[in-house]
Design brief:
Blueprint: H1 2-18, H2 27-42, H3 48-63, H4 67-103, H5 107-138, H6 141-154
Helix pairs in contact: 1-2, 3-4, 4-5
Length: 158
Protein backbone atom coordinates (compact mmCIF):
# COMPACT_ATOMS: atom_id res chain seq x y z
CA UNK A 1 0.00 0.00 0.00
CA UNK A 2 2.80 2.42 0.92
CA UNK A 3 4.61 1.66 -2.33
CA UNK A 4 1.45 2.24 -4.36
CA UNK A 5 0.75 5.51 -2.57
CA UNK A 6 4.34 6.66 -3.08
CA UNK A 7 4.19 5.74 -6.77
CA UNK A 8 0.96 7.68 -7.16
CA UNK A 9 2.50 10.69 -5.43
CA UNK A 10 5.63 10.66 -7.59
CA UNK A 11 3.58 10.22 -10.78
CA UNK A 12 1.27 13.07 -9.85
CA UNK A 13 4.14 15.39 -8.93
CA UNK A 14 5.84 14.66 -12.25
CA UNK A 15 2.58 15.31 -14.13
CA UNK A 16 2.04 18.56 -12.22
CA UNK A 17 5.52 19.75 -13.14
CA UNK A 18 5.02 18.69 -16.75
CA UNK A 19 1.78 20.68 -17.07
CA UNK A 20 3.36 23.75 -15.47
CA UNK A 21 1.22 23.82 -12.33
CA UNK A 22 4.11 22.81 -10.09
CA UNK A 23 1.82 21.36 -7.42
CA UNK A 24 0.33 18.01 -6.60
CA UNK A 25 -3.31 17.50 -7.41
CA UNK A 26 -5.74 14.65 -7.99
CA UNK A 27 -4.23 11.25 -7.24
CA UNK A 28 -1.00 12.72 -5.85
CA UNK A 29 -2.86 14.70 -3.22
CA UNK A 30 -4.89 11.60 -2.37
CA UNK A 31 -1.68 9.56 -2.11
CA UNK A 32 -0.16 12.17 0.17
CA UNK A 33 -3.27 11.99 2.34
CA UNK A 34 -3.05 8.19 2.50
CA UNK A 35 0.62 8.36 3.50
CA UNK A 36 -0.18 10.89 6.22
CA UNK A 37 -3.02 8.77 7.54
CA UNK A 38 -0.83 5.68 7.63
CA UNK A 39 1.95 7.52 9.42
CA UNK A 40 -0.51 8.83 12.02
CA UNK A 41 -2.07 5.37 12.44
CA UNK A 42 1.31 3.79 13.11
CA UNK A 43 1.72 5.85 16.27
CA UNK A 44 4.95 6.96 17.86
CA UNK A 45 8.24 5.50 16.76
CA UNK A 46 9.55 3.08 19.38
CA UNK A 47 13.17 2.66 20.36
CA UNK A 48 14.72 -0.78 19.76
CA UNK A 49 14.49 -1.45 23.50
CA UNK A 50 10.78 -0.56 23.53
CA UNK A 51 10.12 -2.77 20.48
CA UNK A 52 11.91 -5.67 22.18
CA UNK A 53 9.98 -5.14 25.41
CA UNK A 54 6.65 -5.10 23.53
CA UNK A 55 7.58 -8.23 21.60
CA UNK A 56 8.63 -10.11 24.75
CA UNK A 57 5.51 -8.90 26.58
CA UNK A 58 3.31 -10.23 23.78
CA UNK A 59 5.21 -13.54 23.68
CA UNK A 60 4.88 -13.81 27.45
CA UNK A 61 1.10 -13.37 27.24
CA UNK A 62 0.60 -15.71 24.30
CA UNK A 63 3.14 -18.41 25.17
CA UNK A 64 3.08 -18.07 28.96
CA UNK A 65 6.85 -17.51 29.17
CA UNK A 66 8.62 -17.90 32.46
CA UNK A 67 10.69 -14.99 33.77
CA UNK A 68 13.86 -16.85 32.78
CA UNK A 69 12.55 -17.42 29.24
CA UNK A 70 11.53 -13.77 28.90
CA UNK A 71 14.98 -12.65 30.07
CA UNK A 72 16.70 -15.02 27.62
CA UNK A 73 14.54 -13.89 24.71
CA UNK A 74 15.15 -10.25 25.60
CA UNK A 75 18.90 -10.91 25.46
CA UNK A 76 18.56 -12.76 22.12
CA UNK A 77 16.55 -9.93 20.57
CA UNK A 78 18.95 -7.32 21.95
CA UNK A 79 21.85 -9.16 20.30
CA UNK A 80 19.90 -9.26 17.03
CA UNK A 81 19.41 -5.47 17.13
CA UNK A 82 23.13 -4.96 17.79
CA UNK A 83 24.11 -7.33 14.98
CA UNK A 84 21.75 -5.67 12.50
CA UNK A 85 22.54 -2.02 13.24
CA UNK A 86 25.77 -1.84 11.18
CA UNK A 87 24.04 -3.70 8.34
CA UNK A 88 21.17 -1.22 8.30
CA UNK A 89 23.66 1.64 8.20
CA UNK A 90 25.51 -0.09 5.37
CA UNK A 91 22.24 -0.47 3.44
CA UNK A 92 21.49 3.23 3.87
CA UNK A 93 24.90 4.09 2.41
CA UNK A 94 24.36 1.65 -0.46
CA UNK A 95 20.94 3.14 -1.22
CA UNK A 96 22.62 6.53 -1.63
CA UNK A 97 25.25 5.01 -3.89
CA UNK A 98 22.57 3.32 -5.97
CA UNK A 99 20.67 6.58 -6.32
CA UNK A 100 23.86 8.31 -7.47
CA UNK A 101 24.61 5.52 -9.94
CA UNK A 102 21.09 5.73 -11.38
CA UNK A 103 21.24 9.51 -11.69
CA UNK A 104 24.59 9.35 -13.47
CA UNK A 105 23.50 6.37 -15.63
CA UNK A 106 26.46 4.34 -14.28
CA UNK A 107 25.31 0.86 -15.30
CA UNK A 108 28.36 -0.87 -13.84
CA UNK A 109 27.89 1.04 -10.58
CA UNK A 110 24.24 -0.03 -10.48
CA UNK A 111 25.24 -3.68 -10.85
CA UNK A 112 27.98 -3.46 -8.23
CA UNK A 113 25.84 -1.60 -5.72
CA UNK A 114 22.82 -3.84 -6.24
CA UNK A 115 24.99 -6.92 -5.68
CA UNK A 116 26.38 -5.42 -2.49
CA UNK A 117 22.85 -4.66 -1.31
CA UNK A 118 21.88 -8.27 -1.99
CA UNK A 119 24.79 -9.48 0.12
CA UNK A 120 23.75 -7.25 3.02
CA UNK A 121 20.12 -8.38 2.72
CA UNK A 122 21.35 -11.98 2.85
CA UNK A 123 23.28 -11.23 6.04
CA UNK A 124 20.16 -9.71 7.59
CA UNK A 125 18.10 -12.78 6.69
CA UNK A 126 20.76 -15.03 8.26
CA UNK A 127 20.72 -12.99 11.49
CA UNK A 128 16.91 -13.20 11.64
CA UNK A 129 16.95 -16.96 11.05
CA UNK A 130 19.62 -17.48 13.73
CA UNK A 131 17.57 -15.37 16.13
CA UNK A 132 14.57 -17.59 15.48
CA UNK A 133 16.64 -20.70 16.16
CA UNK A 134 17.93 -19.19 19.42
CA UNK A 135 14.41 -18.28 20.55
CA UNK A 136 13.08 -21.74 19.71
CA UNK A 137 15.87 -23.26 21.82
CA UNK A 138 14.50 -21.40 24.85
CA UNK A 139 10.90 -22.57 24.40
CA UNK A 140 9.26 -25.81 25.50
CA UNK A 141 7.82 -28.19 22.88
CA UNK A 142 4.31 -27.01 23.82
CA UNK A 143 5.27 -23.36 23.38
CA UNK A 144 6.91 -24.13 20.04
CA UNK A 145 3.76 -25.90 18.83
CA UNK A 146 1.65 -22.90 19.85
CA UNK A 147 4.07 -20.49 18.19
CA UNK A 148 4.10 -22.50 14.97
CA UNK A 149 0.28 -22.58 14.93
CA UNK A 150 0.24 -18.79 15.27
CA UNK A 151 2.85 -18.43 12.51
CA UNK A 152 0.77 -20.62 10.20
CA UNK A 153 -2.32 -18.53 10.91
CA UNK A 154 -0.64 -15.15 10.37
CA UNK A 155 2.00 -16.16 7.85
CA UNK A 156 5.45 -17.48 8.56
CA UNK A 157 8.46 -15.21 8.79
CA UNK A 158 11.85 -15.59 10.41
Amino acid sequence: MMILAAMLLVTSLAAAQANGKGQANGLGAQALGVLGQQAAAQGPVLTPEERIAKRVEMMTKVLDLTEAQAASITAILTKEVGDMEPLRAQLETLRGQLKDAVQSADLSGIDTTAAAMGTVHGQIIAIQAKTRVAILAVLTPEQIAKLEAIREHFGDRP
